[in-house]
Specification:
alpha/beta; seven-stranded mixed beta sheet; five-stranded parallel beta sheet; 11 helices; 18 strands; globular
Length: about 375
């Protein structure tokens, strides 16, 4: 690829390993720029390389301050458009706020807000990897290529985990079963699913839609705790029901919404057999790691020999490295979509997989106008 009409910028600097690998594979140099903070924490950004009539690729790797990273990216897109570049193609391997894509308890939808801001700032195309909610692509007014890291993770499992053919793919909750099943099919392994009570998000705990009011809830619990013999003698208040007769005289009884019993989940249990086997938990994001450690304890109690965690994005927020070191998890395999240099010394269990080959190939195909479908060959939609 010639450098006459293409240039690559890295907002984290030219020392970023991922940026170096991409520029080396594409045989292009990194553009120079300056991004710093004033004393009052305002961001100043200056582009030092000419971008006139060139396709500009901007790599932004999110760190522990995603809000600052987003502001840098917005300013970069706007500055490039002002400098008369031809196109702005943004590469964000881990897209922040992708988990907040739904309305919850009169809150905002930050995923859509971020999409509108980037498009208005001048972004023409986006490259990202393993969105938490694939529907986020619909928020953008420009093309979004959601690349997959599963081929690299599967290759790591096959090459680095001894006796992987005796392992079991584990979904941490039923909602992750589709992704775990896609891994299990390609590795020809069995699957297990953890099911039961898990920590709810704060927005869900205070949302009145999840349970009836306290008075109705207490009455429903009292009814459910009675034996079958006692239940036959209960007279349920008339206002809880709506009696309707159809045209043919058939009587129907409809239970009102407020009188429905609450959902009571059983303690966290596993559906499947992991005794004497290697358990591989498949995730997309590893954040605070507390729920992963709880799942690992259940797997260890059920007799799993070793426990591995395979994920695309390793955020490891807070004291997650320490929590992982104290857990029964043997290894945590993640990609380098997020910098891990400051996490590896405190947690030797973390292993990193380089995903620069797929990003480099995506850039090459976009620049040459080639089809992107090759990058998704043999990859299920559930990934």
């Amino acid at each position: 690829m010639g450098e006459s009409n293409i240039i690559l910028f890295s907002l984290k600097g030219t020392d970023l390993l991922l940026a170096k690998n991409i520029s080396k594979r594409l045989s292009i140099s990194l553009g120079t720029m300056e991004c710093r903070l004033f004393a009052n924490k305002e961001t100043k950004l200056t582009i030092e390389t000419s971008v006139r009539n060139r396709d500009v690729y901007v790599l932004q790797v999110m760190d522990n301050n995603p809000n600052d990273c987003i502001m840098e990216l917005l300013m970069m897109c706007y500055a490039l458009k002002t400098a008369c570049c031809r196109k702005v193609i943004v590469m964000v391997p881990y897209l922040p706020y992708s988990k907040q894509s739904k309305m919850r308890n009169r809150g905002a939808i930050p995923a859509k807000l971020l999409a509108k801001l980037l498009c208005r700032a001048g972004m023409d195309h986006m490259l990202t990897m393993d969105l938490h909610s694939k529907e986020v692509q619909g928020f953008y007014d420009c093309p979004v290529d959601n690349l997959r890291a599963s081929p690299f993770l599967i290759q790591y499992i096959q090459e680095r985990i001894p006796d992987y053919f005796e392992a079991v793919i584990v979904a941490r909750h039923p909602g992750a079963a589709a992704r775990a099943n896609s891994f299990a099919e390609r590795l020809q392994l069995n699957i297990a699913v953890l099911h039961g009570e898990q920590a709810l998000e704060e927005s869900d705990q205070c949302d009145g839609r999840n349970s009836p009011p306290a008075a109705r809830r207490a009455r429903s619990r009292a009814i459910s705790e009675m034996s079958d013999r006692d239940c036959s003698e209960i007279t349920v208040p008339l206002e809880l029901y709506q009696r309707q007769f159809s045209n043919n005289g058939v009587y129907s009884l409809q239970y009102s919404y407020l009188g429905m019993p609450t959902k009571v989940k059983k303690p966290l249990t596993i559906v499947g057999d992991v005794k004497g086997k290697i358990a591989i938990i498949v995730e997309d994001i590893v954040d605070d790691a507390a729920v992963l450690c709880d799942a690992a304890k259940i797997l260890k109690m059920e007799g799993a020999n070793k426990i591995y965690v395979v994920a695309t994005h390793g955020l490891f927020s807070g004291d997650a490295p320490r929590v992982l070191m104290e857990s029964p998890i043997d290894e945590v395999i993640v990609t380098n979509t997020v910098p891990l240099e400051n996490k590896l010394p405190s947690c030797p269990k973390i292993r990193s997989v380089d995903i620069s080959p797929v990003l480099s190939e995506a850039v090459r195909r976009i620049h040459n106008g080639e089809s992107m479908s090759y990058l998704f060959r043999n990859i299920p939609l559930e990934d």
